Amino acid sequence: MSQINAYRRKFLAALSGVAAGSLASGVILRTVQAGDVPAKPADQPISNQVRWGMLIDINRLTDGGASMVEACKREHGWGNDPKARPEQQAQWIRTVQVTDKLTQHSFTLPVMCQHCAEPPCVDVCPTGASMKRADGIVQVNKHICIGCRYCMMACPYKARSFVHENLTDQRPDSPRGIGTVESCNLCVHRVDQGQLPACAEAAPQAVIFGDLNDPNSRISQAVKTLGGSQIRADLSLNTGVRYLGL
Amino acid sequence: MPLLSKIKSLLGLALFAIALVGCDAGVPEPNLAPAKAKAAQCVEPTADIRKNHMVYLDKHRDKTVIEGIRTTKHSLNECINCHVAPTREDGSAVHYTDAKQDHFCASCHTYVGVKLDCFQCHADRPQVAENPNYQHKLSSTTYHLSATTAQPDASDLLLLGSGQVQGATQ
To answer: Which residues constitute the signal peptide according to the record (chain A) (predicted)?
Structure first.
């Protein structure tokens, strides 16, 4: 009982901190706020009251997202599989350069799993391995993945990769193995413990991570005032990852 | 040609005898040092965890992946942090596929011939470079697995083979 009370207290304190912070210094803050991801007691299940989302301001990403990619590689240990050809290497997040043919205006954005509310990868999975957690995080349950790669075909964002070879010394919190599909999981192991995803931590000036369902969260406030576009919004997938400056 | 076939059958018999002698050398003794170390400190009673560890792990994995419950009690990561040393005394990495079979899990699994596929995906040893305080709080001062080879005693073999290890329990 006391644990739950402490949790509630922490959660409320975090909320008030966010509100004060956003009043004081505009919507996007340069510092990472701990209140974005309230710590959940380890023995409590996740809740569908929360929907995790990420807002990326690509004008503030001076390196086009390369630091985010590096942070993801470090966190999850992909990108350096010894036997894979370059085109076979896993890619949980990548930078994509877009150029307007008419004006030659060019910009770069990081693209990863967009954590759709209606994920096509989940629709096509024959075993239920491709799944959406209650809090909106889309991931592969590798325990039941049979490696058929339907989800890779279904994903309009090319967000998923397949592991072709035996791996050793994976990161303890990020199991990866032969014959399974993998993709960005918004760093579930970190989010569950009240930490930000590695990429959001690597680019605090450009990325807001938080709860889209909570109208007082920093990300909800930012999306409300500044908008935030989805890639391939025409597919009506209601993505959790949104962009500013596209 | 009866003579040739006789020779052939004799040769066959001889080969079979050689094979039998090979079998007679007995089951190789398991390296139980890793498994015995820290047995007393496990999260469940030894007999229980020996028999049911896969059930605990199986339940915990679904809770973790699907519901985000990340308690440490039955977490595979914590098993590894406590029971596997990242390196041997000579500095070489400890992996479950090593022929030495001194990896905690492999030491029994190889002996009883049960396939161990957790580590196709999961890390089979603690990562020290990023996390120097990886160890379970229980394990810091106690026996470390790498070097010594303890002789299995009768109760170990009884438990290991559920009484079916022939000749080993007498």
So the answer is: 1-24
